[in-house]
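Sequence and structure are no longer studied apart. As an example, we show below a sequence and the tokens encoding its fold:
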Amino acid sequence: MSFPMSTAASVVPMVTLGFALGAVYFAAMRRTALLIATRSGALQAIALTVGRGAVAIAVLGYSAWFGAVPILSAFVGFLLARSTAMRGARRF
């Protein structure tokens, strides 16, 4: 069962939600890569990997509950956060 949500009203909040998810996801991914590269905190790296996957599934699942347009909007926000994270990583 899905809850009706106006198409125009769902795009901006879901893009924002997706961007926030992506920002957290890629920050955790960067932290995980640093832990692996320095060979420290294996348990923390595993916890970050499982945690970011679980949060991504929960948030995208929540947006899918409202229909196709909201989940696609959330995914666009996630991809925008990915572009931002990649741009930031190129500077280092």
Observations:
- The mean pLDDT is 89.
